[in-house]
Amino acid sequence: MNALDRDMAGAALLHYGDGEYTVLKPGAYVACAMSGQRLPLDSLRYWSVERQEPYAGAREALQRMVVPMRPS
User: pTM to 2 decimals?
Assistant: First the structure.
């Protein structure tokens, strides 16, 4: 696969770590776990390492902290 084969307009798949994330599937955005808002990767600042999900901002991240996790 080369750069021309990638769907850079679609959703990216990321692995969220402490203070950084790794791109598993290239794309232009990720969707906020709370609002569904599309977040360009260059503006992504909030995510949960434990839940492996992104948030649009501090408000959404805080709201998610009070929502119980679903059992796996």
Answer: 0.80
